Amino acid sequence: MEKKTRSVHAESFLAPIWKANPLFVLILGTCPALATTTSIEAALGMGLLFTFVLVCSNVLISALRKVIPDEVHVPAYIVIIATFVSVVEMFTKAYLPPLYSSLGVFISLLVVNCIVLGRAEAFANKNTVLDSLLDGLGNGIGYTIALLILGACREILGTGEITFGSKFAFIPLTHLPILKGEGFDFSMPIFTTPAGAFIVFGIVMAVIAAVNNHKADVEKEKARQERLAAAKAKNAAAASAGKEAK
Amino acid sequence: MAYFTAFILAIISGMLINNVLLSRFYGICSFVGVSNKLKNAFWMGVAVVVVIVLAALICYPLYMLLDAAGISFLRTVVFILVIASLVQFLSFVIKKYSPTLYKAFGIYLPLITTNCAVLGVVEENAASHAADFGAAMANALGTSLGYLVVIVLFSAVRARLETNNVPRAFKGLPIALIVAAIMAMAFTGMKGMA
């Protein structure tokens, strides 16, 4: 019994990281995924702020789930989420001004992020505080990983290098050249523009679809082979039974 | 007259050059989710235009009030409550006076509360302290008309994509995103007009 409940807790944490990834599988929260992934650092910053807001709102909504009347639950959730977003916004403005200016209005737009409201509606108002905390953490980490993948593709292809320390002031500013060096430069600036955001997101989604299609094909083929083998065995058994009868 | 020209130019720039969906990325969720039927996309776009313009109209004086009182950090909470109640109010009014229109808007009206384009425009207007009322309204009109234009264009393209032969992995969303990328490039070309 003990073991079973523990695996349920683990599932609410692990599922959103890859199997039910909010961005790549459920296709939620696409606005910040396109707008804030021009660099790895901006993507990481957005992911961390998102995780904080989601965990806090999930925990508070789950704790208040028996207090909030059903008729006004959406406005109540929005006010709770907006409060945490304001906290995050003031914190970033005060301590990480470069990050604040590069994310801009998208920090405030966390209020209407479909994932935050969706988790409140679909999970936090039905589950315990612990499960909601784990669900928030899992979704936050899953979304951050997805943003980092997009951010890494766009920064490496678009600028040819990875820059550390431009958004987080406490890291010394360093450039790590990847696609350029002495006498050559393979960077394609289009990937840092809005069009590049759509291209990278589209191709990543297509790669994921291709992998899933391949997996489904392999499984189908395996099931077909098994069915064939089973039919063959049955036929052989029937034939041998028929021979014996003769 | 000069003021009027500036107003029109600001609308065009918000509509075509800094398009809300293709270069500012507000409201992508609805862009991806709704737009595969031309008629639905059109009514969704019209509903967004109405809500954005009204929200900008109401939130502008409210933000002045908050700023004067020194509590501008409360703006996000205030704005989202204004938008949510505005959408609720609009759906009551439309239901009462024009059931046909209510049917046309259907499910899209309540969804607009969580459309980032509305909150995005209002926040942008608040962030540019210097902007006067005219500039704020031009931004609202330009942004919302840009949303309408692009969502209608995109839905027409997507309707054709569905009957076309695309590689299996690109079926559905991925090819739609690539099309959006090409549209974004086309809209980047309008930068030369400004």
Would you write up a description of this structure?
The complex is a heterodimer of chains A (246) and B (194). Chain A contains eight helices and four strands; from the N terminus they run αααααααββββα. Chain A has 246 residues and is mostly helical. In chain A, the strands form two sheets. Chain A has a two-stranded antiparallel ribbon. Chain B is mostly helical. Chain B has one domain. Chain B has helices at 2-17, 28-34, 38-69, 75-97, 99-105, 108-111, 116-127, 133-163, 173-188. Classes of the chains: A mainly alpha (246), B mainly alpha (194). Chains A and B meet through helix 2, helix 4 and helix 8 of A and helix 2, helix 4, helix 7 and helix 9 of B.
Give the oligomeric state of the chains in this entry, treating copies of one chain as homo and distinct chains as hetero.
heterodimer
Beginning-to-end CA distance, first to last residue of chain B:
19 Å
Q: Any idea what the shape of chain B is?
A: globular
* SS content category of chain B: mainly alpha
Counting helices, strands and paired strands, the structural category of chain A is: mainly alpha
Q: How many strand elements of chain B?
A: 0
Question: Please, what is the average pLDDT of chain A?
Answer: 88
What is the averaged pLDDT score of chain B? Answer: 85
> Number of folding domains of chain B?
1
Radius of gyration of chain A: 25 Å
The number of helical elements of chain B comes to: 9
Strand order of the largest sheet of chain A: 1-2
Helix fraction bin of chain B: over 70%
